[in-house]
Specification:
single chain; 142 residues; alpha+beta; three-stranded antiparallel sheet; 5 helices; 16% strand
Length: 142
């Protein structure tokens, strides 16, 4: 029996792979049929995503330390709406391009504003983008 060689962990670079981005195709939310609409995203393991999360956590810590003593309020209390807005902001930061996106009869040119609108208005697109960002198999080499 041949002994299997262990994998060199240094060759598994999720941050680098995640930073390259991956394109995925949206599917219809009910039929699961491919829509010929493609969105390119960075992964949750990318340095871009990790930096954004660290910045938000640091901002929340600073706000909590500033607000608590002076107002007596707990600055860490958040709302569902704030959490959703933060999630959309994260997804927009990880969205680097798209193609074949048509909205209201017109091609929707990729921009942060357009991505924010799509992810805010269409929960099913929000869910698919969120899953794609977290699906590390999209970003790694076979």
């Amino acid at each position: 029996m041949t002994k299997k060689q262990p994998v060199d962990l240094a060759k598994i670079d999720l941050a680098a792979d995640g930073e390259k981005g991956a394109e995925f195709e949206l599917v219809h939310p009910i039929t699961n049929e491919p829509l010929d609409i493609y969105i390119t995203v960075l992964s949750k393991e990318s340095n871009t995503f990790k930096r954004l999360i660290r910045e938000k956590i640091n901002r929340n810590i600073r706000e909590a330390s500033i607000l608590k003593p002076s107002s007596g309020r707990n600055a860490n209390i958040t709302t569902v709406e704030k959490q959703r807005a933060d999630s959309i902001e994260n997804m927009v930061a990880c969205t680097i391009n798209w193609r074949n996106v048509v909205h209201d009869g017109k091609e929707l040119v990729f921009s942060e504003t357009a991505a924010t609108m799509l992810y805010t208005v269409y929960d099913w697109i929000f869910e698919q983008v969120d899953r794609a960002i977290g699906d590390l198999s999209l970003f790694t080499k076979s």
